[in-house]
Amino acid sequence: MTDSGLVVARWTPTSVTFTVAGVGLLLALSFLPTVASPATLDRMTTLFIYVILAATWNALAGYGGLVSIGQQAFFGLGAYVTIRLSNAGVNVYTAVVVAPLIVALFSLPLSLPMLRLKTSEFAVGMWVVAELIHLLVNLDPLIQGETGISLIALNAYTVDQRNALTFWIALAAVAAVLAILFVLLRSATGAGLQAIRDNEEAANSVGVRVVTVKRIVFVFAAAGAAIAGSLWLATAISFQPKTYFSAQWTSYMIFMVLVGGLGTFEGAIIGAVIFYAIEAAFGSMGVWYMIGLGAVALLFSLFLPSGLYGIFGARTGVQLLPVGYWLRDTKSEPAVGQGKAAEA
Amino acid sequence: MLGTVESGEGRLPGPQIGAAHTEGIVLSAEGIVKRFGALTVLDNVAFALSRGEAVGVVGPNGAGKTTLLSVLMGALEPTAGSVHYLGQNVTRLPAAERCRVGIARTHQVPKSFSGMTVFENALVAAQHGGGHRASEAYDRVVETLRLTGMLRVANRRAETLGLLDRKRLELARAVATDPKVLLLDEIGGGLTDGEAGELVSTIKVLRERGIALVWIEHIVHVLVQVTERLVCLDSGKIVADGKPRDVMKHPDVVRAYLGSAVG
């Protein structure tokens, strides 16, 4: 067989530029605490938390087909374990970072029964799990039921220190979540995950170890929701179970991913930024704000199911952070990207 | 070997699979029973496939052909009986693991990964089922897409394909897993003569590579171009097993097809 000039491309010049710019932006942001006001840092931390929530729910639902409406279980646990660790004498910021890892470990055995459930059973099952965990946390005497407790260990730090530390952890977390997810989705596991989403039986037939692949994304999404919860606690200071275990967190995730573009890596990030902007503009409107969010989500799922980025991508063909594969014929057009030559 | 036509009265080819014969056998099923509630879909089916052999499976709708394929693949666990692959008991081995050791299938109703491109569909198969990594997997996919005539639509999302291309994609995906045994479920249904001819030449290439085939198909004249043996299933039992010419003349087969012209 001769060289047919076919190459597999995974990058385009646009996506390389965008990715380098994105990494540069994250690095530049790490210097923000030296120049920005505490209020700005606090707002940026909130934005990062939203990006983490959107990206991890999108990984679960958009790429894995695992639509969970109980991710608040892990969000709440992230905060709760942080309180517990801090109460046990662990440094409060160490607790914020370690708590999500503990929650990830906890999600591993939980995945055994949950991943036996399919589609809507899984969705509702996760909600039930979240309610159960909420009730169990309420039984902890330290939490005092719905009275809650504050992360008093934060008092050892000044407001400026707190804002900067929380900001840095949030920045590192968002960078880590996006980087891990990007690498995961571009790997063989990521392709297997999308295959499961599209047809589980066929994925089995072509050798994808369905439960193992699902478990990887389930634990990843749990860890992501948990660090969002522990970071939220670090900014809000007080822990009330009903606030943290509220289904509202998952509805925010769904909103961000639907608006940005379900199953697109970039869409989740864009959705988070849009949600943040909407909240900043209309968040003070109370009930009408929630009704507006619901209406927008409904309109998107009815009329723009591929979301803003989905439309943008389909119209322009531009890929910013591509996770797929593109077969190019170098004999008819110049090679783009350095995928390995596919000889045939 | 395994070439005699059995009568329909419970005389099954099972006993033929003696120790003397197992050496050349790549995949076998013994005493397979599959029930869904009160319904018995497979009733004590025995079947053996030799290395590199191509067997056609015929039979009326509802005979249990697809169920047999699913049991061989591991998508369904039999109610009773066992499946052996290369001398190993694989009865409890899940489909994904069977694929990894060398059994692949196509689905009667195409089950494409609709949100992924044709290339990515085949890539998943080459990476997971075939165990190929990086450029090795790419090469395998390009070669498979070329063989199955799918290279021209490599970058198309599977959901945009017509039925014919989705059937080709089923075949491409199965071949990309590097199977030793390929189970085809009505891959040629609804093809024109020209298209069927293409399919036959593709499958002949696969046979030349030593891949053993079990091919369910209604269009017998296409089937006999590739297979040297036919098995006829009716109401969950094998009613005939042997040379295509003999099988198609067998009284039980004729009765199963209600006297329609076959062969």
Description:
The complex is a heterodimer of chains A (344) and B (263). Chain A is mainly α. Chain A has a domain of 215 residues. Chain A contains 14 helices and four strands. A two-stranded antiparallel sheet of chain A has the order 1-4. A two-stranded antiparallel sheet of chain A has the order 2-3. Chain A is globular and about 65 Å long. The C terminus of chain A is likely disordered. Chain B has 263 residues and is an alpha/beta fold. Chain B has a domain of 143 residues: Rossmann fold (3-Layer(aba) Sandwich), CATH 3.40.50.300. In chain B, strands 6-7-8-3-9-10 form a six-stranded mixed β-sheet, sandwiched between helices. In chain B, strands 2-1-4-5 form a four-stranded antiparallel β-sheet, with helices on one face. Chain B is globular. The chains are: A mainly alpha (344), B alpha/beta (263). Chains A and B meet through helix 7 and helix 8 of A and helix 3, helix 4 and helix 5 of B.
Please provide a brief summary of the model.
Chain A contains 14 helices and 4 strands. By secondary structure, chain A is mainly alpha-helical.
What are the secondary-structure elements of chain A, in order, as H or E? EHHHHHEHHHHEHHHHHE
Q: What would you report as the Rg of chain A, rounded to the nearest angstrom? A: 21 Å
**Secondary-structure arrangement, i.e. CATH architecture of the domain at 1-92 and 213-263 in chain B:** 3-Layer(aba) Sandwich
Mean pLDDT reading of chain B: 88
Mean pLDDT of chain A: 91
Structural class of chain B: alpha/beta
Radius of gyration over C-alpha positions of chain B, nearest whole angstrom? 18 Å
User: Judging from the principal axes of the Cα atoms, what is the shape of chain B?
Assistant: globular
DSSP, total strands of chain A = 4
Determine the strand fraction of chain A and express it as a percent band: under 5%
Counting helices, strands and paired strands, the structural category of chain A is mainly alpha
Distinct helical segment count of chain B: 10
- Shape estimate of chain A: globular
Major beta-sheet overview of chain B? 6 strands, mixed
